[in-house]
Design goal:
8 helices, binds ribose-5-phosphate, about 300 residues, six-stranded parallel β-sheet, 16 strands, alpha/beta, globular
Length: about 300
Amino acid sequence: MVEKLVLAGPASVELGKSVAGKLGLGLLEHEFRQFPDGESKFRFESSVAGKSVFIVQSTYPPADQHLMQLMMASHHLSQEGAKVTAVMPYLAYSRQDKEFLPGEVLSLGVVAHLLRAAGVRRVVVVDIHSMEGLSLFSFPIYSVSAVPDLVGYARAHLKLTDPVVISPDFGASKRTEAFAKLYGAKMLQLSKARDRETGEVKMGQGYLEVKGKDVVIVDDIISLGSTATAATELVLRQGAAQVVALCSHALLVGDAAERMKKAGVKTIVGTNSVPGEFSVVDVSDALASHLRTLEE
Ligand code: R5P
């Protein structure tokens, strides 16, 4: 039987340890340093030849740095004879999965090529932005859903009365539908339009049945918070009682959380795919369950 190990990458030390603990696997010993100029350095002493290594390394901002660290570790370990699985709870560049404007670089495809060239044999992510992104990988990639854990958290910790679950755009609808179904709540679909040049978000919507209701916005990513802010303003204008925003990946860039709170979002909830103040839902069980199903 092939020995399996977990490398808890510098971006996901706690999550990596937790996944290893749940799988009953040892952690791959290593030294890691970051130099003042931002460059990273790894040193591995133990032999990994013939072993299977799960590198747990999320690629939240600084995305390029976290990606580079993952590729450095993968390249070395695969050269030493390990079978490398990249466990990337947040997959950077997943929103750049198509050419929205002529001439735009298909960045997720570039990431896929680079990972492959760095010796990655399979990838496991949490809630990829869009299933279309999977097709840019010429080797196995799996997207694990955080929805059951988000539902579990909402049930246990958010005091919601007969909530309405909102999908802020069509891209989010499948995930939101799954959330609503599992929670046992009604779902409403908003139609978001984002200006591809400026990034400005507009919510075009008529009457919504949200008066006096608790509203749960469910999305894959909260980045600048523009989507959640626009959705919140819309439902509050239509009489919603309170708004909570749940997501798989709470990037919350800059003052996103403050903007959302100012717009009236009562609670923000994310998972530990991206460590942070609002990342209260643990995806280590979901990841461990999936990794258990993989051969060697
Ligand atoms: C877009 O399609 C995604 O699903 C999210 O809605 C988006 O990435 C959120 O970004 P922001 O928080 O900057 O509006």
